[in-house]
Amino acid sequence: MKKILLYSLIVLFLACAVNVNTFAAQAVSGQTEITQTAEHSVPPVYMIAPFVLLLAMIATGPLFYPHFWEKHYSKIAILLGAAVVIYYMGVMKDFKILKHTLSEYLSFIALLGSLFVASGGILIRVNKKATPLVNSLMLFTGAVIANIIGTTGASMLLIRPFMNLNRGRLKPYHIIFFIFLVSNIGGVLTPIGDPPLFLGFLRGIDFFWFFKHGWYIWLPTVFLVLSIFFVLDMRNKERNEKEEFTGKIEFKGIKNLGFLLIILISVFLDPAVMSWVPGLSPLPIGVREIIMFIVMFASYKYADKQILETNEFTFGPIKEVAYLFVGIFATMIPALQLIAYEAASLKDAVTPGLLYWSSGGLSSILDNAPTFLNFLSAEMGRFALDVNNKMDVYNLTNAHPVYLQAISIACVFFGANTYIGNGPNFMVKSIAESSGLKMPSFFGYIVKYSLPALIPVFFIIWLIFFRG
Prior knowledge:
The chain is mainly α. The protein has 19 helices and 2 strands.
């Protein structure tokens, strides 16, 4: 049933892809004028209700009605998403944004899915005693690697070794701080690190701009969060049952390491980056996504089955992310449009500090990639610049870097505030739960960890770098 619903929603999206080109071809008959009007219209406020309802059910379902939620969450996400899609098709006649959303979702799931499957065939064993120092070093290493293979790649590669390292003493806070540092904060130094930064790179931001303007914020943030983790881990009196440790680090699955490399190379196979790469319009996917889906299949088919078994690999976590985020991507369309409209109307009052808190706060509950683009577009409008013009984006990075810096840092950092703030968060949570660890609820995550641990750190960053 849920597969039928998912396919039905994607068919609706695909129908929009066809309609975009139909409308373009009918400019003579006046249909283009209708489309343009729809594209620039703002949805009514009540259309954010499906998004709010979905977030509320994600937060309360596992806590108050777990059996119902576990059985029906996929249907709920798809039906709420379908309600928004049908409204945009039938009432607003805005087919372009639906096609764009479908493209973003397929890119999102292609990247997460391929990295998830490829990393599942890699076995890393750290035969050391789990101490606060060893754990901190592993988290720091993950934060660095996140800038090379992305927060998703680093999360999928290291979450199982990190859990195995702490077997016998594994607690929810281990997973939470892994999400904080490896799945989010770590990846702010390169466009590969996190999706919003890659979108900025596609728009014209220099590849090394993020490192140049981010390392001196990244370093103290990582240090502060690691310090909090270190104190918590010091209080964990449980120790690994194994008494003898060789100190060796075991690595298996070299084939899948090659698959990871293919995924990373394919990230750049976009016509906006390399002009020779063909576009596949009107299809909602490109060469990049096709390669990633092929790698997803091949990396599982040719993986060492013993490694998959040792890693306790299943498709459960990626299936949960696929179903929930198809609903999130669809239902958040009205919310993002309303945010863009309000941000543009208030552009003269925008300061770096306001950008930091507003874009960061929204990145906690909305996908941080479109949030980044909406705030970047609004801020560029303040200086009469166009976000679709690469030279204008490049000029902003030189003339007004603090604005872009505030948006970039906030969209990446604040994604750690909730399970849905960034794609890898939910996947890491699902992997931990599939191993038998009881993780905090949606609100428990925020109240027990985000508010007391992250927000004070983010406040210090604002105070030092963006208050003025």
